[in-house]
Amino acid sequence: MSPVIAVGVDGTPESLAAARWAAAEAVRRGRGLRLVHAWLWQPVPLPMARDRDEEARRADALLHAAADEVAAHHPELGIVTEVVQDAPVPALLREAQRAELLAVGTRGRGPLLGFLLGSYGQQVVGEAACPVVSVRAADGDRPDGGEERPDGGAGEVVVGQYGYPEDSHDVLGFAFEAAAVRGAAVRAVRAWDLPSIYAYSPGTMWISEQDGGLVQYEQAALRRALEPWRAKYPEVPVVEHVELGSAGQVLLSAAEGSASLLVVGRRTRKGPLGSRIGSAAHAVLHHARCPVAVVPES
Length: 298
Description:
The chain is an alpha/beta fold. It is built from nine helices and twelve strands.
């Protein structure tokens, strides 16, 4: 099957924003677009009985309305639609197994604002086999999904790098490809913290700033991780950004006002309440002003 970009659609402004972003991304990458609506018939007793055929027609209508909307902006785009007989989470996770990319909508910004699928959103982001991009509902009126900068140029693709080169291999690869298709620069961000031995030392900041040892180590680590991607994408400008602080806050600061896309990696951890995607991914998903891509690391 040809590579496609999939998007979950449920008739809300949030999902339409995701569909518009996904359509623009499909055009950029030369991919097809697959719009999916998950609908599971669940009979209820009278007097709340619903008509199954009517519900099915409603599901089909909202899906085709989304397809007509994106086709109006991208008439050259190949679009496939399907109503999937399943609950949203398993349906989207199954789509992620065969898609190059999955897009979902978010309600907005702030710690109390969740994903398009509410409490299900973290499960989809945390368990999807492919990268998942969350798009803000506030960008629903923008055909590009909110990526175009006020000056009309291509905003940076901001990406978080961490650990050794192999630890962030997949997330850097995704970011460089995204920058290449946009004609944008990559801002590679490595946030770091002081080793615990320095945590309560009065001379900590003097050591890190004057001696330069800790800072230089972090800069060298970032440079090593970027080497293969600079070689593969020589046309992509790269900005190296090393900063002391928590990864989530450093990434949000780096992306503020200039990013067209923010890219983070994740290694899912299972907890008693379900999948946990990590503090950095959680922070940027809830607070970033631009679309956020969460890339599973192998």
